[in-house]
């Protein structure tokens, strides 16, 4: 019993499309994966944890969640020289920003000025992501 070539090609195309749809992760999964990665990074002590990065969490808290995620993706990208896993966090945040906002496009500019340690940035970002999961403010 052989399958005609056009039927087989149609099946392959439909399978590929369905696989692409399955690759789109829900927002909560991206948030939880980023929280998990940050937890692992915080448990790993390395000398570059003290490197200075822009403190996007300082000052007035007027930024909305999307703007904070966009800025955090930029800072995470800067910190990947210390931790390779920050690239995964960066990509997750970038995905969330692209999916959730037409206004913000990463890399978002971050104002130079206040700085914090990379370790403190990771703790603050983890807290923000945990709050977003709790509030489910990103859909």
Oligomer: single chain
State the shape.
globular
> What's the tally of helices?
5
Q: Which class of secondary structure composition applies to the elements?
A: mainly alpha
Order of helices and strands: HHEHHEH
Largest sheet: 2 strands, antiparallel
Kindly provide the radius of gyration, computed on alpha-carbon positions and rounded to a whole number of angstroms.
Answer: 19 Å
Q: Which regions contain 5 or more consecutive residues with pLDDT less than 50? A: 5-24
Strand order of the largest sheet: 1-2
What fraction, in percent, of the residue positions are helical? 55-70%
* Mean model confidence by pLDDT: 78
> Beta-strand level of the residues, as a percent range?
under 5%
Question: Strand tally, please?
Answer: 2
Distance N to C terminus: 47 Å
